[in-house]
Known about the structure:
Elements (H helix, E strand, L loop, with lengths): L2 H11 L3 E8 L4 E4 L4 H26 L6 E6 L2 E8 L2 E7 L5 H19 L23
Amino acid sequence: MDAAAALERLREISSQIRAAVIFERGGKVVGSTFADEQRAKEVADEAEALLTEAEQRRDQADGAGEFAQLEVALQAGSVFVVRDGERLIAATTRPEPTVGLVFYDLKSCLRDLETAAAPKKRAPARRKPATRAKKTDAKS
């Protein structure tokens, strides 16, 4: 599944998501629901900066490591960021979303992309059943 199809499916299954952008570390946009590519790039950059800032603050408090997911709740709605390796998705929602469900939907969207990107394994070739030649009687 390509990014556009994954985002379309995301919008179909999650009525809480207003907008979303899929991107890679460094801000390369893979796909988005924004009509304006520049806006999609800005949101990707801001989401990555938000995630980086949260990780730095957490590192100062209790340890190292990368976040897998992050939610920032605002009065006007929430911002979600989910990471799967080098690929991330950021989404905005209406106020008071069902947090667990939004995270699940965003992770599913990234999995849809991962499944499409993974090379398909070929099924082993089927062998034709061996045919036996009928033995003829040597005495005939």
